Amino acid sequence: MTILKSCLASFALLAPAFALCSYSRPIAASTQPPTARAKAQETTKEKAMLVHYLEVVSSDMDATCSALSKVHGVTFGEPDPGLGNARTAALKGGGRIGVRAPMAEHEQPVVRPYALADNIDSAVKDAEAAGAVFAMRATEIPGGGKFAIYFLGGTQFGLWEL
Q1: pLDDT value at position 93?
Q2: Count of CB atoms within 10 A of residue 2's CB?
Q3: Which residues contact 117 (CB under 8 A, 6 or more apart)?
Q4: 9 and 30 assigned to the same domain
Q5: What is the DSSP string of 84-137?
Q6: How many domains does the chain have?
Q7: What is the strand order of the sheet 145-152 is part of?
Q8: Measured between alpha carbons, how far is residue 81 from residues 13, 70, 141, 142 in Å?
Q9: pLDDT by 10-residue block (mean), the chain, 162 residues
Q10: 30 and 64 co-located in one domain
Q11: C-alpha dist (Å) from residue 61 to 51, 71, 98
Q12: Which end of the chain has a smaller Cβ tally under 10 Å, C or N?
């Protein structure tokens, strides 16, 4: 029992350091201004991902929207039935963030980025070849393109084709 207490005490002392490390950005990324990073990408011809939609499934949608509004100065719209009744706001540089409640009892809170895909069918095949398991195959959103959801490495991702 004393070993357990000792371990818990050590963890309590180190918890702030763990939290700080988990929120730290890589040094190279944090020392370059965004324009310098963009210019470096252009120089190396590195292909960049573009997050088109950032989905937040929250057990308290209103509190989440309120906090994000206060912290980032954005305004969330009314629930959009086409996006699972998500309330959305603009993302800088394009795209949207959507906050919604779970749509089923088994759905857990999650933050899921949807990256744009030129060809969603090809991207699905590539993700499967990399070991992804799909929860939702490419599905049409009337007037909004197609989306898909997959799991890989214990993390959820989305694809979106306009």
Answers
A1: 87
A2: 6
A3: 123, 159, 160, 161
A4: yes
A5: TTBEEEEPTTS-EEEEE--SSTTPPPEEEEEEE-SSHHHHHHHHHHTT-EEEEE
A6: 2
A7: 87-90, 96-100, 51-57, 110-116, 155-161, 145-152, 133-141
A8: 46, 25, 11, 11
A9: 36 34 39 62 79 97 98 97 96 94 96 98 98 97 95 98 97
A10: no
A11: 21, 15, 10
A12: N
28, 57: one domain:
no
- Measure the CA–CA gap between 162 and 52, rounded to whole angstroms: 9
Mention every residue, 6+ apart, whose C-beta is less than 8 A from residue 158: 53, 55, 112, 113, 114, 115, 147, 148, 149, 150
Per-residue pLDDT, 36: 64
DSSP secondary structure string for all residues of 8-71: HHHHHHHHHHHHHHHHPPPHHHHHS-HHHHHHHHHHHT-----EEEEEEE-S-HHHHHHHHHHH
Domain match, 86 and 63 both: yes
Q: Are residues 49 and 23 in the same domain?
A: no
How far, in Å, are 1, 15, 64, 108, 150 from residue 111 at the CA level?
38, 23, 12, 10, 13
Q: Are residues 106 and 31 in the same domain?
A: no
Give the whole-angstrom CA distance, residue 70 versus residue 76: 11
Domain that holds residue 13: 2-41
The pLDDT value recorded for residue 146 is: 97
